[in-house]
Amino acid sequence: MGDVWLGQPYPLGATWDGVGTNFALFSEVAERVELCLFDDEGRETRCDLPESDGFVWHGYLAGIGPGQRYGYRVHGPYDPMGGDRCDPSKLLLDPYGKAVEGEVRWHGSLFSYQLDEPDPADPDALRNTEDSAPYMPKNVVINPFFDWGDDRPPRTPYHQTVIYEAHVRGLTKLHPDIPEEQRGTYAALAHPSIIQHLRDLGVTAVELMPVHQFVPEHGLVERGLTNYWGYNTIGFLAPHNAYSSSGQRGEQVLEFKAMVRALHEAGIEVILDVVYNHTAEADHLGPTLSFRGIDNASYYRLRDDDKRYLVDYTGCGNSLNVRHPHALQMIMDSLRYWVLEMHVDGFRFDLASALARELHDVDRLAAFFDLVQQDPVVSQVKLIAEPWDVGEGGYQVGNFPPLWTEWNGQYRDTVRDFWRGEYAAMPEFASRLTGSSDLYEHSGRRPVASINFVTCHDGFTLTDLVSYNGKHNDANREDNRDGTDDNRSWNCGAEGETGDPAVVALRDRQRRNLLATLFLSQGVPMLLAGDESGRTQHGNNNAYCQDNELSWVHWKETGSPQPELEFLGRLARLRRDHTVFRRRRFFQRPQPERNGLRDIAWLTPAGEYMTDDDWHTGYAKSLGVFLNGDAITEPDPHGRSVRDDSFLLLINAHSEDLSFTLPGPEFGERWEFALDTADPQGVDERHPVKARDGVEVPSRSLVVLVRRA
Question: Which helix (H) or strand (E) holds 56?
Answer without folding.
Answer: strand 56-62
